């Protein structure tokens, strides 16, 4: 339920469950973490792009699995940690709305690009779940504590133009994967050690 395109210096990882709005199962989350960890360990890879198939990036956790324990499973933190700790450039290319726990992998990326019609929300208060432990801090680092509370506690749905204005996403593009490729060009042309060094300086 994920698709991986290996283009040498670039790996494109696509959530591939469009009939279920790319809702995330434990199997998918583990496969995503495995794929990111392999990319990070491969000296040829300099950039990872995360995207989705269809009109939605991800609706978050598969609700049946969430009720059965996925909501508190450590696999979420394993995935977001693998992305955040990766020594390469990571870009979320949001082909549509990102909701709930799916936001964790988006927040962990270095850059975020979204289609103009995307929405971002994290309805943990409404659903009775806590956000994954690292998500609130990453969210607050991007948008500030008050707006993080607006999203996590007020259940706000952030439209793409507002997300751009507040720093939740970095670019809007009709084709976010194409925009991600453009932004990745310098990193793909550089030595991986240079990519690692700049990322370390910014961490």
Question: Would you spell out the secondary-structure blueprint of this structure?
Answer:
Blueprint: E1 2-6, E2 10-15, H1 26-41, E3 47-52, E4 56-58, H2 63-67, H3 75-85, E5 89-94, E6 97-99, H4 103-108, E7 111-114, E8 119-121, H5 124-127, H6 135-143, H7 145-152, E9 158-159, H8 160-166, E10 171-172, H9 176-189, H10 192-202
Parallel strand pairs: 2-3, 3-5, 4-6, 5-7, 6-8, 7-10
Antiparallel strand pairs: 1-2, 8-9
Helix pairs in contact: 1-3, 6-7
Question: What does this protein structure show overall?
Answer:
This protein is of the alpha/beta class and 203 residues long. The protein has one domain: Alpha-Beta Complex (2-enoyl-CoA Hydratase, Chain A, domain 1). The chain contains ten helices and ten strands. Helix 1 runs parallel beside helix 3 and helix 6 packs across helix 7. The protein is globular, with a radius of gyration of 16 Å. The model has no long low-confidence stretch (mean pLDDT 96).
């Amino acid at each position: 339920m994920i698709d991986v395109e290996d283009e040498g210096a670039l790996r494109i990882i696509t959530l591939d469950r469009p009939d279920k709005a790319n809702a995330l199962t434990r199997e998918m989350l583990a496969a995503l973490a495995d794929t990111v960890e392999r990319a990070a360990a491969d000296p040829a890879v300099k950039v990872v792009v995360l995207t989705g198939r269809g009109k939605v990036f991800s609706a978050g956790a598969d609700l049946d699995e969430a009720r059965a324990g996925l909501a508190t499973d450590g696999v979420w933190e394993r995935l977001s940690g693998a992305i955040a700790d990766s020594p390469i450039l990571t870009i979320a290319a949001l082909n549509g709305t990102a909701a709930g726990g799916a936001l964790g992998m988006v927040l962990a990326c270095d850059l975020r690009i979204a289609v103009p019609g995307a929405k971002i929300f994290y309805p943990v208060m409404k659903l009775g779940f806590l956000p994954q432990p690292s998500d609130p801090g990453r969210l607050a680092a991007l948008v500030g504590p008050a707006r993080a509370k607006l999203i996590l506690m007020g259940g706000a749905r952030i439209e793409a133009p507002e997300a751009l204005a507040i720093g939740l996403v970095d670019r809007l593009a009709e084709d976010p994967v194409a925009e991600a490729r453009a932004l990745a060009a310098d990193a793909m042309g550089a030595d991986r050690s240079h990519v690692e060094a700049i990322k370390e300086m910014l961490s």
